[in-house]
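Two proteins were folded this term; both appear here.
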Amino acid sequence: VGGKVGLEEVYLGAGLGFLLLALVAWGFLGQMEKRTR
């Protein structure tokens, strides 16, 4: 086991991070839309 990270792990981590960010942004936009009405 070396300190090298596999490409799959990198893509998985980036994908999960992007998904989480998109989810948070979507929820935030939904809250803003509710407040303006």
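Next, the second protein.
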Amino acid sequence: MEYLHYFLHATVALVAMVNPLEAAQFFPTFTQGATAAQSRQAALKATFYAFTILTVSALAGRYILMAFGISTSAFQAAGGLVIMTVGFRMLWGEAQTAKEPSAANVNPAESVGLLVPFVMPIVTGPGAITTAITLTTRDEGWMNLLLVLGAILLNAVILWFSLRASVVMEKWLSVRAQKLISRFMGLILLAIGAQMAMSGVRTFFVDRL
């Protein structure tokens, strides 16, 4: 039961940070002039790259922290604060300039290729990467890592469906509905970040007693 709880916890945290609904809003901008087949291929590539970035972050995060001499509890506390900040901004509907691409600067030929501006930083920005690393710092066991990787995989599936259905979602979801969903996810993210930060602070001081 504990494993299921943490798997859901990790999944919700990543969904809130990656925000597939927001990604789906921007996706058509990066595939303007592309055929249906090219759009499907672009959605698959974007999902694969996002999955790869988050997976590498989760796998290598602990070793990066060790290289810089940062304790996992300290990073968990700092990561929680970062997640809280993003959640607070989403809750109050503040614009995230890093996630607002300019359609005028988009090259349709490149849009169906690597989609680098879309995947990074729109889908997997610093917040999503920090979340992936922070989630792996709860426990050093393999089960914790597997749960996080499973959550990343599930997020990739959700992202892929969202990108494939971007045109339909844009048609059926009003701007107001999208904002309400974004703010709700911001509240969830704020709570998850607070829990991570407090857990990191508690562990940090307990380890030094």
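The two ends are 31 Å apart (CA to CA). Residues 2-206 form one domain. These notes refer to the second protein only.
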